[in-house]
Amino acid sequence: KQWYQRRVRGEDQGEQLLVARRHCYLPVTNTLNNLLAMSQGASGVQNSAGVKISSAAEAERQLTEMLHYCYSSTDEVFHVFLYEWLIGNGLISRLLEVKSSFLEPFLRRTARQPDNLQILDIMWKYYEKERNYSAAARILAKLADRDTDKFTLWDRVDYISRAILCAKACSTTLNNDGEFLHELEDKMDVAQLQLSIYSALEQLTENNPGVTAALKSLNSLVDISTLYSEYAEKFELAECQLAIVHCAGHHDPMLVQKLWRELLNQELTSGAHLPMVSMMNNLRSKIETLGRTYQSSEKFFPLQFLVQQLEVIACKGGWGEGWVVETLLSIPVSYPALHSTYSSLIQLKLPCWNQLGQPYHLHIAMSLLLSSYVQHLNSVPLAERKPLLASIQDIIDAYVVDLQASTNVGADVTSALSRFKALQAGFNKY
After folding, report:
1. Main-chain dihedrals φ then ψ at residue 37, nearest 5 degrees
2. In whole angstroms, how large is the CA radius of gyration of the chain?
3. Which of 118, 119, 92, 124 is nearest to 106 (CA)?
4. DSSP for 210-239?
5. pLDDT digits (tens, 9 = 90+) for 242-262
6. Residue range 141-169: mean pLDDT, rounded
7. Which one, of 204, 197, 201, lies nearest residue 223 by Cα?
8. How far is CA 120 from CA 60, 93, 169, 227, 278, in A?
9. What is the rounded CA–CA span in Å between residue 308 and residue 261?
10. How many other β-carbons are positioned within 10 Å of the β-carbon of residue 277?
11. In whole angstroms, what is the distance from residue 222 CA to residue 226 CA?
12. 359-368 pLDDT, tens per residue?
């Protein structure tokens, strides 16, 4: 033991003594090597007594028996050589079987060496097996942040995920463990954004040196500000930019609208070669996915802005007046929220609708929304239904009066008017 401690301190005499000591253990390691080779399919191998072993299964049995005998040794230096043999032969699961007071000190000492990734990977497994989840979590977090090109981004995310599981398994309620768990969860949020950016960059044009370099650098974890400026913004990944802004809780209405506008344009551009139905379905799927993520916060799901943008897209593309309403209801956005939004847009009387040749496009969309709303009124409690019906009736009457007073008696006015009158007639059954 003193020789080993001298070696740890870097003393030449300790190193020389340990080399000499290693020769004493050669018969043991030679036998272990033979048994391991036979258990893996080598032929013609004999055990230490010179008896030929009949099968790989028998070699495996003898190897297990001999290792357990070795584990019982009280010689710390022998344990060190045994652990090094197990690691050198990739027998990590057998190393973790060891129940010895020598194993943890060995791992801790070895982990102080510069190239210690393999030992750290063994250490967290050891601590997890020993139910020291706090220590396992901290080693896993250290591995996730390690400056090395041996890990992919997915490796690092896996380490963070395992660290979170270990941190949650801690029986202790100390504040520092709770804070550490919170830090890990924040780190995972950012790492997930990094994965999204990585995946988005992989979809960009091949043979782009800038993209190739970015993908390589993304195999190391970066902070959220760098993710935004050096990757999402630089490569115009609007969806990823929106996700980062949302994760950071950054409130900038103009920026959010800009990102949504770019996101919609990118989706339309990428699907420009597709049939109209496919383009409509793809955009609907994108809106549904993002809507379910962001609709709980008006900051990041600006409903009035989005309805306006989507209705213009639908109007230009000839997708029909009900496409936007159906898309948003499928998220689902509530009927009252949509009704309030469409009412506000109708009152604005924006010139774009005249420019598109459909000044009453929003009125028709509103009629479709109210028609769908009325069909679902049976799910509204009876006590609430009557005042709600009265309110909707007043709204419909107001639109009918407005349309009848219009001097522009075009097809869209006629269509909207007939729809609202049909709704008026339908109220009789309520």
Report:
1. -60, -45
2. 34
3. 119
4. HHHHHHHHTTS---HHHIIIIIITTTT-HH
5. 999 999 999 999 999 999 999
6. 95
7. 197
8. 28, 15, 20, 28, 50
9. 11
10. 9
11. 6
12. 889 988 988 8
